[in-house]
Backbone:
């Protein structure tokens, strides 16, 4: 595992974008210690028109940013292994996620799933459960955050904290 | 060709989304006659960070809407034949395009390239040049609008006008 060398008191918003479910997690990284500030998911109904779903994601994310006041956002980057329809759906959501980030004046970094795995567990072949266990451990939580998309978003936020050198 | 049966004086914004270049065209459809109100493209530099490019698209589109005051937007739908990287790029742009549309309170319809071809030329195998010639003819223009993305956006707007029955 990488040593968590972080800027003092940095507040990071991690996001795992998706049209059906967008995970978010806000952590505070201070001297290598992490605390969870907020975390959850934005769900949108599959039956709803796409533009309404994108608006829901945009508006809710704006609210999360304004409530939790992060200094930087870390977003899981697109990966292309999954099927095209899923990838499209993620890409559209990602468009409005990035817009919400820049409209809020936040810096933004992207991390691939591989980078997240490597940052949290030290190697790229960690499975989902190992990542989630690390999220729980590093944030001193009693349980793995649910649902998965929230845990994934927190993992991206932690990855950013670990990747940022003083 | 379909008979252009349209709502009187309907103003339609057609959009052909893309991260590098988003085409737009505003037409007025009145009793089966079409006039071009505005048309152009929003270009974003390839070197720029993605979130800045998406912001440029969003902000410029907002301006086009506020300047031209369309009642409805017609957007070219995603098509999956092209390579995944291009499709991703289009999907991200499309996310912010749809957000700009709903934030402006516009109705919105989507049309596949096939639907656009069929509406404008009556058959689905028309080539790009035939479509562009029809755009020029139907809008009574002296030349085919340039660049292609602008002509495509106008074609989508015309397609909507032709598909809308009283």
Residues:
């Amino acid at each position: 595992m990488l040593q968590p060398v972080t800027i003092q008191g940095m507040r990071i918003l991690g996001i795992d974008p998706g049209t059906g479910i967008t995970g978010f997690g806000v952590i505070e990284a201070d001297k290598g210690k992490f605390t969870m500030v907020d975390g959850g998911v934005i769900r949108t109904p599959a039956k709803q028109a796409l533009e309404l779903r994108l608006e829901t994601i945009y508006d809710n994310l704006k609210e999360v940013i304004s409530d939790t006041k992060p200094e930087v956002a870390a977003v899981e980057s697109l990966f292309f292994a999954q099927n095209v329809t899923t990838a499209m759906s993620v890409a559209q959501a990602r468009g409005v996620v990035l817009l919400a980030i820049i409209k809020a004046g936040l810096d933004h970094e992207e991390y691939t799933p591989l980078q997240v795995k490597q940052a949290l567990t030290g190697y790229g072949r960690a499975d989902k459960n190992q990542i989630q266990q690390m999220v729980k451990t590093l944030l001193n939580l009693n349980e793995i955050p649910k649902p998965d998309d929230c845990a994934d978003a927190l993992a991206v936020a932690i990855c950013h904290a670990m990747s940022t050198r003083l």
